[in-house]
Description:
Radius of gyration: 26 Å
Low-confidence stretches: none
Number of strands: 18
Strand content: 15-25%
Largest sheet: 7 strands, mixed
Number of helices: 25
Structural class: alpha/beta
Strand order of the largest sheet: 12-11-13-14-10-15-18
Shape: globular
Mean pLDDT: 88
Helix content: 40-55%
Amino acid sequence: MRNNESLYAALKELQVIDEQQLTQAFRDASVQQKPLGEILLDRNLIDDGNLGKLTAQIFSVPFIQLINLKIPQEILMIIPELIARKEKIIAFKKDEQGLHVAMSNPANPAIITFLSSKIGMPLVLYYATPRDIENALVLYLKDIGKAFADIMKENLEEASKKGGKNAEPPIIKIVETIISYAAHNNASDIHFEPETEVSLVRFRIDGVLHDIIQLPKEMYPEIVTRIKVLARLRTDEHQAPQDGKIEFILDEQQLDLRVSTVPVRRGEKVVMRLLSERARQISLLTLGFSQEDLQKVERAYKKPFGMLLSTGPTGSGKTTTMYAVLKLLNNRDVNIMTIEDPIEYDIEGVNQMQVNTKTDFTFATGLRSILRQDPNIILVGEIRDSETAEIATNSAMTGHLVLSTLHTNDAATAIPRLFEMGIEPFLIASTVNVLIGQRLIRKIHTVCRISEDLPREKVVGFIGEPLTQKIFGTLPSIRLYRGKGCDICHNSSYEGRIGVFEVMEVTDEIKQAIINKKDAATIKAIAIKNGMKTMEEDGLEKVKAGETTIEEVLRVTKE
């Protein structure tokens, strides 16, 4: 591919990527017949924005980031949705020069000529990354309530044409529409809940549940049955919990859905967890680590053995962090094995095993079998019990790099938690390389972000004088940012999430504190003295940078 060669030459000249890694990526792109940029993104060798700027230079057109624009609906609709999706092209502005369009392939004369003649004006071309255009295509979606009404209307019209009086509800189409809308709105979960008069569909977006649509209660059992069929669950079982999986193709991408059903008072509640290919592309670079914390994590995973532990409550992104590290370690010269419950994402080149309690295949038994498979790197989805903790720490002691997660409030609390599991202090001190405490916070929606100057006293009222001075200095007024709310972010003022972290390297001083069985508060104090930034401080740095709000940081970091 000519574009691959041009991009390779440009990156080689700039020397922003290790030459050996770049050359290997170029060879793999040629063998797999894939765009070089896609390979580089997947291996975390470049970020989407910088790749876009370089690619735009190769095409000799300006680079545009659609995520930063508010596109009027009347401009967007100049290009029909079918063409926009197929050709990866978005119209975003119209003036005396013509229609300004963002394309993932501006070197496509056929579509440019066709569109120009169809709309009767010249096109002003820009380059936008495929990922950016994909995100912008969501603007074509109607409100889900209207989409649902249209489905019912179409079905009734079809029934009347056939002479039918009572049209059956189009259950298959309704379920597909709900899943599609959830994916397009970046929902992590879909909740189906039976109520007295209606049934409710809710989406979890950026960690917060939103009521989306009410469906007739008569339709609900059929919707549950359809989901069970797709997930290969028993349709005649209504009194016991069931778990399954659905593979759903959406916009040429595979969407994996983990399905859980449980009996509740008025029927069965269904929750679907969405796991998209796009989510698999997350890297340490985009999770929200500061440069300083990133270097600490890099030092830890570049050691040939030891443990990396990510800590935090359920839903704080621990597994995602460990997957991002695993992707960086995933080379052909190492054997990587995992034991997970469940397997969240398939990773090519990694041997992944699923816990199965029915066959007594637990984390501990799985970990024992992994050790007989000559592994270099092991990922244990979660350390839940003493047996798993003991095998994991012994594995780290005997030449393996072990990645895992723990349910604790912060990084330092993981040490006493391991004590409670019966792990000897000297073993913890010898094996744990780094402890990562983390939470997820919502990001301000860039399109509707505004700034405001707050009196210093008001900020001090939120976070106290020491933190205010440490993060914002001694200015009498402090500039902060917030979202105004708009149609794109559903007036929530937020879009997307980012991590707040504290990264505790196990230094010699901390090792000594562990051997002396010091408590979490003492260990945390030593880590802070040695330069560890707390989660609250990391969050406030993101507030200062205009990424989030003080209220959001306090919401997730307060004890």
